[in-house]
What we know:
Layout: E1 17-23, H1 29-43, E2 50-56, H2 68-76, H3 93-96, E3 99-102, H4 105-115, E4 118-119, E5 123-124, E6 136-138, H5 159-184, H6 186-192
Parallel strand pairs: 1-2, 1-3, 3-6
Antiparallel strand pairs: 4-5
Helix pairs in contact: 1-5, 2-5
Amino acid sequence: MAGTAPALPAPRTPGRYAVALVCLGNICRSPMADVVLTARVEEAGLADRVTVASSGTGDWHVGRPMDRRAAATLTGAGYDPSRHRARQFGPAWHEEYDLVLAMDAQNLVDVVAMGSTTGPTTGPTTDPTAGEERRVLLFRDFDPVEPGGEVPDPYYGGHAGFEEVLTMVERTAATIVAHLDSLLRPHDLGEEHPAP
């Protein structure tokens, strides 16, 4: 299936960008995407401008490291998964991140629902899907091979499932970083080449 990736919504702070990745328990898919996207951001020289974080819609694994199979898959591919500790997504994330990327359709529904609730201290939040700039999308909306697909949950499967997720994550992360580079580099021109 061919298609064009959506444009990134504008950054809330010019020249900086924050991306949140969300799955169910934050021990497999979203932390794998977090580690890979962070590595790609660093390779592109954007680490001082782009923040990447991951979380889960559920609270079962909060504070725990990544699933050992996910960690082993990343380690085998040359990544360092050791810093990850699971966190839970909450309504405040909608205000803190420029873009929230869900791993599958149910995660997307859950994340959008959290953005429509009224928090006890933050008050009503705006609908993250309203207007032209949607800030909540599927991670694989940026997949160059199958845009709009879901990242399958490998938790109940074997090693091959984690390898499949890594392949999807790597190619999709490359596309996201290309978009981030295009979005953020124009600010370099103003900094390095001031008008006379």
